[in-house]
Amino acid sequence: MNQTQPPLREGRSVTTAHPGPGQLDPGLQDVNLSADEFWARPPDRRHAGFAKLRALPGPAWFPEPEVPFAAAEGGGYYAFVRHADVTEASRHPELFSSARGATSIVDLPAEYNEYFGSMISMDDPRHARLRRIVSRAFTPKMIKRFEENVQRTAAQIVDELLETGPCDFVGQVAARLPLKIISAMMGIGPEHDEMVLRNTNIILGGGDPEFLSGNMDEAITQILLAGQALADLVTELAAARQEQPADDLTTALASANLDGEQLTPAELASFFILLVVAGNETTRTAISNGLVLLTEYPEQRALLQADPDGRMGGAVEEILRYVSPVIWMRRSVTRDCTLNGRDYREGDKAILYYWAANRDEAVFQNPERFDITRSPNPHVAFGGAGPHFCLGAHLARREITAMLRELMTRVPDIRAGEPDRLLSSFINGIKHLPCDFG
Length: 438
Hints:
It is built from 16 helices and eleven strands. With 438 residues, it is α+β, with helices and mostly antiparallel strands. The chain is globular and about 55 Å long. The chain starts with 35 loop residues before the first helix and ends with a strand.
């Protein structure tokens, strides 16, 4: 869905009170989370804007975008930019609900939310049911095999990188690892890789013209068709596995039975969309941005290469904090409540800006400093504590670790060029990244 948003509507303002008319605070003239131009800025300028929001006495309120296909006319949303607000809201899904949509600021039809969001756009008990069934499919034996495959695949990709030479790092390295792992997990042949990657890019294209039309209606059609293509792929594969089971995740998911409960075909399709979209994007974003950071901070690269075994874990966590691949998720207030001294009304929307919480000066000392030795590092790159903490966090960490280890030990002089960043308020992505070495 198109996550970028039009400029502020006339008569509305950014405010720390409840929605109402007024003038934009002169000190916040460059902070407009509803404007395309804000998200087109370099990351350091966006971070400066979020720092201004954190300095306010409470969460700022922004008008929401006006788009076709919305289920209802909205009003606005609160920007949760402090670590304490993001983590506390995450711990209380009974007050800050995901069921009205977690990945779109505007209210979209429920079936649209669940089709593209699966369990991300559900509350308990439905969320708990789906997560239980899915978790049952991830057996210890299967997880061990996936982990071994991650290391082997990362090594193969670096073998090919050394043969290819300088290239587009995203296409040749960062995007390939999670795609190959997820495809192998599901039992999807490599002949489908290009289609899966293309449709993943469309679904998470934000407002980037490389992937989506500038016409909203056309963009929505593109997204729906991309989702349908992925759903058709896994539905056909699941049907085939019913006839001829295999040792893969599709078979496990299609046959998973928990106290008589199984995934419906629609639930399996939507979970697959979530798996390939979220699983691909988070990992490739962290790997791509990781190379940029290790190029921009040579002293941190030197620390990592001097002791990869001792410092790799810290490096991965700091990359995740500093990069924050998923910029935000939305919640909706279920009843009048108070959070950290601020009152909210039933129906209010809150956008949990993980990107801003991970730079909160109250939690992270010198948050703008990239420091692979940072400890503790309570980042929220995978979401705050609570039922919606990322199910794939362990696998993502494993993939990032494996790829960085291969690169830093086998291609120690690899350097990133100027990144071509994704125009999106939702994903902190890099579309293309030239690299050089040797």
